[in-house]
Amino acid sequence: MSFSFLLGKVFGRFLGPLKGGQDTGEVERELPFAVMLFTLMAASGVTIYDGWKKMRSISLLPKFQREADEVVRQVEVLGYDPLTVMSKRAENTRSRVYRDFLAGYVSSVQSGINVVSFLKNKMRSMFEAESAASNRAIERLGTLIEAYAVMLIVTLCTYILYVVVSSSSLSQLTSAAGIPSSSNILLYLLVFLAMPMLSVFFILIAQTARKSSLISLKECYRRALFSSVPAIGLLSAFALVPSLQTATSAIGMTGIVTICFLIISVPPWLSYRKIAGVNFTAEDVLPSFLRDVCEARKIGLSPEKSIIHASKRGAYGSFSDLLGLVRSQIEWGVSLKKIFENIKKKIRSWSVLVHFFILVETIEIGGGSTTALEILSEYSEKSKDIESNKRATLRPYVLLAFIWSVLIALTTTIVAMTIYIISNIQMPGMSGATPIGNVQGQLLILSLGIILQCWLSGFFIGKISEGSLAAGFKYSAVLAVTAYVSLLVSQNLMIGMYKL
């Protein structure tokens, strides 16, 4: 499969759907939760229009919050009937799933079908559609990773081709044939501009293809920005201050650059690790907690006592501390809405917050009916299964990143130093051997480019595997060290083998 064909395939699968706008994807992401809220409110006797008015206050669903503002505006300002407004919104939306929901709801009301039954059936079909969409998303991400791997192979081949063409003997052959010789300017543009731009391009595609469940990760990026200042200062000092040249020669510029990348990546990595540990645990155990609340409600406990009973089970890992705080606040008489506002300060998982909000609304609006809690817990369990399957399927691709980092470092070094040995063999009609200084200079540039490429690859892998660029700080740091160690081992191996 050629690189151009694979890139064309990537363009078709990722950039093609973007023509309809990113809003479509956001609407379809929020739609199952909006339908669940409509279903719970309908089961509690709330009309669909009152449900739209309620939706205006839900900041966790920003697309539907704006949609609700428009529906209420057309009803109260322009005087349209709610069903007429929903029919018009169905005609104007670019999301097929949302259009089917609106049209189906209007049709069920006009034909006298049980609205709650329709909403439950629609939710069930959404479960199945979301599971199938998740599988298709995994296939698209797999295609994207394959294209990125091919790009890295092309990078490796380009590096090798440059080393081969720039060798002394082959340079004379190409000059005799009228082919212009390579220059270091071309190498700098290739290593520090062209290849990193390709990696950034793939990262941008991954940004649209994989969404993170974590919100408000500005703290991680802020730490990366702050830590980049001393990293840049350290790199500049070693490069420009003459008195530090001895240390530069002892450590090596590749080692200094690797240290600078670690200075940038480690602080945000530790920050992200703390955030992700709590929130991913909450995502994993929340379905069990909601199921416990539902079962406690079935035996006749009040909604508040059901939450207290479920939170005492103590099998929720680090999420148990937050549930203990919730239990204490309920026992002290704090309202559920106030408790939810406190939870928002500690939890950054969008799905956890939405499910908790729906739990609070179920209790506040409908008194926590067992039917509504059963719907909520069932959806939460299926959402967890879908997300767990996606993470488990994408996790093996992390190993691929380490393989290509080691492969690029080893192959480039071995080929460069082997070409140097071959070019120093005097051939008839050829004069002069490649100076060792030229080889060291080229190898240094290529080594720095490889470390930079592996560091950028970490952000791509972090986005693919965990859905967040902040997760890339962990992989970027580890991949940069992996590339540096591979370069060090391969260079020492070749130096010892050829006794250079």
How would you portray this structure in words?
There is one protein chain. The chain has 500 residues and is mostly helical. It has three domains: 16-113, no CATH class; 140-271 and 392-498, no CATH class; 280-381, Receptor-associated Protein, CATH 1.20.81. The chain has 20 helices and no strands. Residues 1-22, 173-182 and 427-432 have low confidence and may be disordered.
Question: Which properties best describe this structure?
Answer:
500 residues; 0% strand; mainly alpha; 3 domains; Receptor-associated Protein; 20 helices; 81% helix
Structural class: mainly alpha
- Discrete helix count: 20
Task: List segments where confidence is low: pLDDT < 50 over at least 5 consecutive residues.
Answer: 1-22, 173-182, 427-432
Q: Please report which band the strand proportion falls in: under 5%, 5-15%, 15-25%, 25-35%, 35-45% or over 45%.
A: under 5%
Tell me how many strands there are: 0
Number of domains: 3
Radius of gyration: 29 Å
Most strands sheet = none
Instruction: Based on Cα principal axes, name the global outline.
Output: elongated
Overall pLDDT metric: 80
In short:
Helix content is 81%, strand content 0%.
